[in-house]
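Summary of Year 1 activities. Much of the first year was spent building the evaluation harness for sequence design. The harness presents a backbone, in tokenized form, and records the residue chosen at every position. We chose the following record to illustrate the format because it has been used consistently in internal testing since the harness was completed.
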């Protein structure tokens, strides 16, 4: 925060999004758009920006390729917005150089793991109404999370009521595995589907055998009947 305050004092001359401040210090360019009532990410952010602050706005979604043209980005602050949806390729193009991504204090319930696991950045995900599920568990296990805020990743909703309100890390430490629950659900669904097909095959075979048996009985009865009866039948 102190670094951004220093950046505010040194404006730079290239184009800057409306309602934002663009500054530079020691060659590092920053775009500061905090508390500007923005509802989406500005389209005209300079390509050579290094620090981007979009906190305390009303942004609801991070679309695919939102920062793709900003290859120099190292820090993005999206905290204290109203973000509900993050697309799978939201951070495509900035994964290699990004060092910090702050998504804390939004309205995020779930997030595609592909959007975060490709990043090397330190993530802040605290104070969101998370639905504890397999994708979030994988993010917690594999992504680089900010250790100071990891305890504030809390289950707002969960498959079982007993997990609600608890830190996700505490739930996982107790031995819960949301990914195995999903796998069991998938296995049950596959078993039911296979059983349904098997039952259909059995019913078909039974009907087929019964039909052939009835035809054979009728044909045998015809052969055993007297010639006069066969003549009348003909």
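For this record, the design step produced the sequence shown next.
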């Amino acid at each position: 925060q102190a670094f951004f305050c220093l950046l505010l004092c040194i404006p730079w001359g290239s184009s800057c999004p409306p309602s934002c401040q663009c500054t530079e210090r020691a060659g590092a360019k920053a775009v500061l758009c905090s508390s500007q009532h923005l509802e989406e990410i500005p389209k005209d952010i300079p390509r050579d920006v290094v620090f981007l602050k979009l906190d305390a706005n009303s942004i609801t979604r991070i679309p695919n390729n939102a920062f793709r043209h900003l290859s120099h980005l190292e820090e993005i602050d999206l905290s204290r917005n109203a973000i509900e949806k993050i697309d799978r390729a939201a951070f495509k193009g900035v994964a290699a150089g990004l060092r910090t991504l702050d998504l804390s204090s939004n309205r995020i319930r779930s997030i595609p793991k592909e959007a975060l696991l490709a990043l090397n950045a330190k993530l802040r995900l605290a104070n969101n109404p998370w639905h504890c599920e397999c994708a979030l568990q994988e993010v917690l296990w594999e992504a680089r999370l900010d250790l100071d805020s990891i305890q504030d990743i809390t289950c707002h909703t969960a498959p079982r009521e007993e997990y609600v309100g608890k830190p996700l890390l505490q739930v996982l430490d107790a031995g819960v595995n949301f990914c195995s629950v999903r796998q069991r659900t998938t296995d049950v669904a596959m078993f039911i589907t296979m059983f349904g097909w098997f039952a259909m095959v059995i019913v078909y075979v039974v009907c087929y055998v019964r039909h052939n048996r009835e035809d054979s009985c009728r044909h045998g009865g015809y052969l055993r009947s007297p010639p006069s009866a066969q003549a009348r039948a003909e």
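The longest strand covers residues 21-25. Quantitative recovery figures across the full test set are reported in Table 2.
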